[in-house]
Design goal:
Oligomer: single chain
Order of helices and strands: HHH
Number of helices: 3
Number of strands: 0
Shape: elongated
């Protein structure tokens, strides 16, 4: 979350997108047997897609 600080403050929807990405990361982490690389990768992808498309 700290690395996203610049993105969050420059975009009106950044906080919501970041929270959705964090929730996705946690959900994937718990659903797929605590596979860190998978959950962080999917959470990051969700954040990037949201920031670039919406």
């Amino acid at each position: 979350m700290t690395a996203l600080h610049g993105t969050i403050t420059t975009d009106d929807h950044g906080i919501g997108y970041a929270l959705l990405a964090v929730a996705t990361t946690i959900g994937v982490h718990l659903a797929f047997g605590r596979r860190t690389i998978l959950s962080v990768g999917i959470g990051t992808a969700v954040d990037v897609v949201l920031l670039n498309t919406l």
